[in-house]
Structures are given as C-alpha cells and as structure tokens.
Amino acid sequence: MHNRRNFLKTAALAGGAVALSGLTGCAMGSRPRGHVVVVGGGYGGATAAKYLRMWSQKGVDVTLVERNPQFISCPISNLVIGGDKQMADITMSYTGLRDTWGVKVIEDSVIALDAAARKLRLASGGELGYDRLVLSPGVDFMFEQVPGLEREEARSRVLHAWKAGAQTVALRKQLEDMPDGGVYALTIPRAPYRCPPGPYERACLVANYLKKSKPKSKVLVLDANEEITSKKALFTTAFERYAGILEYRPNSELREVDAASRTATFDFDTVKADVLNVVPPQRAGDIAAGSGVKLVNKRWVDIDWLSFESVNTPGVHVIGDAIFPAPTMPKSGHIANQHAKIAAAAILNLLAGEAPNPEPVLMNTCYSFVDSKNVIHVSSIHQYDAAKKVVLPVPGSGGVSAAANELEGKYAMAWAKNIWADMLV
Amino acid sequence: MKLLRWVAGLGLAGTLGAVWAAGQPDPNLARNLAATCANCHGTDGRSVAGAGNEGLAGTDKDTLMQKLRDFRSGARPATIMHQISRGYTEAQLELIAAYFAARK
Ligand SMILES: Cc1cc2nc3c(=O)[nH]c(=O)nc-3n(C[C@H](O)[C@H](O)[C@H](O)COP(=O)(O)OP(=O)(O)OC[C@H]3O[C@@H](n4cnc5c(N)ncnc54)[C@H](O)[C@@H]3O)c2cc1C
Fold it and tell me: Residue A268 class from Cβ within 10 Å (0-12 exposed, 13-18 middle, 19+ buried)?
C-alpha cells in the first residue's frame, strides 16, 4: 500500500509524468520488476548480482557478464605470492550465484555500451538489453605512463600481479626461481590506486619468504608517494623487523623500465632487479572509462552517492574501484562489496518507482598480513552528509590495530571466508 | 510490470524518486544497515561455519545491544568492534540489532 501510494504521489508530482498515474492500475505492489545487467563478477559485481536477487525475492532478473570462468581474489593473493597459500585457496566458482540465486552468468566480455538504447555489445557478437546496468569492472592499467611497458612482451617479464590470476602464479614462480642474493624490486604508483596497503603487505610477505628461504636477498620498495600511504606507523614497525632485507624508498616515481635487463629508472636512481614487480598507475576499467560516463581527472567515474548512478548517464550505476572515491575512502574489496549493497538497494527502489534510501552508510576494513600469521587492520565508517551530498567518515570511529597480532591473523581469514560467501554463496 | 520497465527505461524513475525523497526513512533501512556487517559476520548475520567470526542471526536484541554498548564504551576489549560500533548512531544500532534478532 505504502509503496503504491508513494508511487502515485511521485508520479503525480513529476510534471511530465502525470499521465503515468493513470496507468498504475496494474498492481503497483512493493515488488520491483525488471532486468538488471551487472558487468564484472569481482568484489562489487558479484555482491550486486546476489543482493539484487536476494532483496527482490528473485523478482528482478539479473544477468552477470564476467570474462573469467572463475572468481580469483586479490585479497589473500599476497599470501600466495609469499608462498603461504595456494591458488586454490583464493579461487571460487560462480555456481552459487547461478544455482542458489538464479543469476544468469555469462562468460564473455562487454566491449561497448549504448546507454541511450540501454544495450551492451558482447565480444562474442551478441547484444544484451537492460533496464538498469551495474558496472563493476575494477581498474585497468595506464601502461602508457610507464615507458618500456607499452608492449605485451615486456609485460610478460615485468609483472604487476595487481589483478589476481595468471600473474599471481607467474610472480610466485619468478620469486622461486630467483637466486639467493637476488633483488626483488616493487614499484608503487601515486595514490589513488587499488588497495592502498596492498603493496606494503606484499613487500612484507616477500621479505618474510626471502628471510626464511633466501636470506642473502633484498627487497626494495620504491614508492612514488612521499610516505607510506596506509597504516604508516604499523608498516614502519613491520619494515624494521625486516631490516637488512627490506629497504623502503619514498619519492621514487618510476620513469622508465627496461624489461630485458629488468632495470627501473627513477629521477635520481637506477635499480637493476632480478625480479621487477611494477604496480602501474590505474584508472577505471576500460568499459567504464570509455563509455561516455563522466570521469573525474579522466580516470574515475563520477557518481551520485545515494544510488551510485553515473551523474551524466541515467540507468548506469558504477561501483567498486572504478569510481571517484569519497574523502578517505580507499579502493578495496570490502568497500566495493558495500557499494554494491547500496547500489542494489537503490536500483530495487527505483525499479519499484521509489527514491533511493536517503541515508546510506558504508564501512571499510583492510586487513594486511605482515608475515604468515600476524595482521594489522585499518577500519572506517562513512555516513551520508545530505548537505554535502557525499559520504563522510564518522569522527571518533574507525582506526587501526594497536600492533600486529596473531588474533587478527585469524580474523582476517574469517573476514575473507565471510565476504567470499557474502558475494558468491 | 511493463510500466515499471518503461518508467525505468525512460530514466524517469530517478527523477520521480528524487521528488519524494525528502525526510522519509527507507522502509528497508534496518536491512540496509545490517548488510554493512555481513562482510565479517555473514549474509544476514549467518556466519560461515568455522570461519571464526560469531554469527549474529537469531541473537536476542537486548543481548546484541548490550554487547555493542560494551564495545562502544570500551568495557569489552576488542580488536575492531570498538572502532566499528562508534561509527553508528544508537538508533542505527537498535535497528541493526532488531533486524538480526529477527533472522531465525
Ligand atoms: C594484491 C592485492 C591485495 C588486496 N587486498 C585487499 C584486502 O585485503 N582487502 C580488501 O578489501 N581489498 C583488497 N584488495 C583490493 C580489491 O581487490 C579491489 O578493491 C576489489 O577487487 C575491487 O572490486 P571491483 O568489483 O571494483 O573489481 P574486481 O574485483 O577487480 O572485479 C572486476 C571484474 O570485472 C571483470 N571485467 C572487467 N571488465 C569487464 C568487461 N568489459 N566484461 C566482462 N568482465 C569484465 C574482471 O574480469 C573482474 O573479474 C587487494 C588488491 C590487490 C591487488
């Protein structure tokens, strides 16, 4: 009743749409109906697909287009690189979304968006129409900003492993093949990039491996930023524990790479490594960045925080790493999951003719391993500010661990198992 | 149903909704707030068996509220819940606790 009344009232209020109210005789119940297409089955997209089905009591049709046959998690992938976990530990199937939730999962790539016609084009040749679209494509890399890595061949020698999968396996292999006494060099781009603490966690876990297995080796962390961008005090302490193995150099922006000799050039320095791991600068994934939705700094999608709808392209909701973040909000799997739930709730409201929830709340936690067992976290809670039209961190809330500890090593895995189930099972 | 699709298709739904938005709490507010806990405590508070975080589904509301207040005040030591519980208003925590209590 409630919803029906709301709809009639809104329809009547909206000048041009008055005529609609005459048509609502056909059961305007609370149940949203329509077809939502989700592009990208990662942290944001898989969560959105599940929650759209769950919260609509399976009343809304959901199609998920994902190019990979399986989900492979970036969180916990640094433990695979450090040798503490296996790929099987971070690989999951989409059968839960398919069988339990009735999501139509299509293994394909979306190559074009026609927002005016509400249609997508697939790499396999087909087309897909939608009533509302969710884009959660994650990031793509700006290799054009890293001279020497423009070509595919160079990129097969100098890895990023910043999307989990084949590169994760390959980087682990390079570390296993590295002689004792070798140099592992990791370059970090200027913020914002996917997962602020991720590179420092990786540096710790590689140092942890080398300390045990190849103690004459070195880890060089070359950071374009002027200081550690996340959990600075805690990572500084962790780095001290790897003194003699790990060296951290701030203000080191990568200028050029010679893949053949695995040499990295900086403004005042050149580093020759045995394993060179370049995390390149990033922007919204291609399908979001190239589809006409408004970008900020030509990199990240500008969205409305109540619905995650693009500010200039109606019907297109963008979530996860691809968006221009709110103040202090990181690009993380946890936050992508939270974006997805706000977007799903808003889409279901909109499909039922109602406004999005006017007071969304979301929270983030990033757990980082500093060795095989000890973990540190950073957490934050963000509430909507109606005057500023953005979500803002709540003063006095959130924070970091007092110190690295084993108990949070357990909680970090509990987080992983629960968030994986929350998106896929 | 067709109508809704049509409304959505025209991009009107967003516009219509915006007109109505002012001041009304969302009928699904408790559900939406509780979903912010699911990353660690499981979908609808049903934690993955053996994962290592407590499930919240089906726990009595007052018990949940007492635990959350103890986290907030610092009476109960925690690795993270003291920081998280301080990010929500008392009224929001009440909605969340009632929602989980009702999940059987
Ligand atoms: C090493 C590392 C460690 C991390 N650790 C943590 C952590 O501990 N905690 C945390 O919260 N976050 C962590 N993150 C960050 C987290 O992985 C990302 O923030 C998260 O994956 C973002 O979710 P997303 O949905 O935006 O993108 P993704 O999860 O990357 O999903 C995007 C999906 O879209 C698909 N796709 C893209 N374009 C198309 C297309 N055109 N057609 C079809 N499919 C497409 C891709 O194949 C991919 O599956 C880490 C990241 C890294 C690299």
Answer: exposed
